[in-house]
Amino acid sequence: MTDEAPPKLEWRGVKKRFQGRVVLDGLDLAVPRGRSLVIIGGSGQGKSVTIKIAIGLLRPDAGEVRVDGRDVTRLRGAERRDLSREFGMLFQSAALFDSLTVWENVAFRLLNADRVPRAEARARALEALSRVGLGPNVAQQSPGELSGGMQKRVGLARAVVSQPEIIFFDEPTTGLDPITADVINDLIVEQVRRLGCTAVSITHDMASARKIADEIAMLHEGRIVWRGAAADIDRSGNPYVEQFINGRADGPIKGAV
Amino acid sequence: MNPVRAVGRSVLGLLRTAGRVALFGGKGLAAALTPPMFLGQFGRQVLAIGYFSLPVVGLTAVFTGAALALNIYTGGGRFNAEQIMPQIVALGITRELGPVLAALMLAGRVSAAIAAEIGAMRATEQIDALETLSTDPFRYLIAPRLLAAILTLPLLTAVADTIGIAGGWLVATASLNFNPALYVQNTWSFLQSWDVVSGLIKAAVFGFLVALMGCFHGYYASGGARGVGRATTHAVVSAAILVFASDYLMTSVFSRGL
Question: B23, CA 20 to 30 Å: which among A193, A224, B99, B167?
Fold first, then answer.
């Protein structure tokens, strides 16, 4: 333990229930610095809750979240917001602010939390937008005028613009056609590699998982039932993983329908 | 079901909600009164809440003033008191109807809009996004709206007072044979500054309550489009009720004090 660096991000025995229903049941998971972990699992298995607890949008009932070995579970207010400077997040719905233009969305943290001068913030936003393949003509538009794929690009630009150490991707390809989804996957891989940051994604899209993951963990009924290198996913020997990646109705996972 | 238990449960629910609203309002006020502030957001809200409410508040005031003048004139006629109609209209408008009607129009227009906007932001994860972008939603969303409503509703009320009295004047001079100059002079010499000021103080409190209800219900909206609809309804209804309840409370305190 002494000469080994702590994981960049770690969940330790995290439990969470909503109105009596157990969602996370003692989740243990660690992500080494600079690695890309993808959490797979069916709908309603606690994937979103796992991410929301890590970034502090939800508080666990028990257990802790550690960043660089430091317990951050109970940080609130200004301390929490300072910590979130290390984080970037791409939301499932992109969650762009529809009252602002595209570039103001990308520059939001620079303008409002870091109080960077407008001209500089705009220049950095335009640079981030160009990295995700969007030109200056898009920068003045309102997010509502953009297609789903373009909104995801803007969301990605917003997540990476202040060079976070950990980026979270919540279902990055949901609702996109397969080609657009692949473009977004490529952009994610490219940005994560460029920043050298740690990435945590949740998805049920196996094509996306194979593309962006170094490691894959499978979440089922609030616990990790398998974890391994992305390359080993097809020979996991784990009945849950096999059922999930092959999309079979029969197996140990009971469909919620 | 046991009726005692049902009563107990609803009382506890009411108290819990009251506590949450109080905490929410306190947190919002604290954010509104301490730096850092989002001046751009504040300016936008002053326009949305104050400036764009002017037409609806003005129209309400002119018709109310006119109707009030007619009613007081005919009612006063029963004991030969028609001639003090201007004074009664001025008193009624400045102390009561100006602030209350402006607040009710704001409850319909503004607290619904706030609840719908913030509720939709909640539903589309925009409030979560604010947190992840190191921005306090209370400072960015709640504080500018509370502050804008607290500051602009007294101004709207001052406008409503003026237009309401003008509405009474219109009816009085056009169809009740009052002397135009005398009407204005009677109103002016009779009104005390406290009549107006107490109404403006009420308006500031109403502004806080109306914006608070919109913010609170929007912030805790859940359940997609239906949830946003529900939040909007709750915001308008609770804002209106709080306006009336606090109006009575403040009136009773003011009338005892002076």
Answer: B99
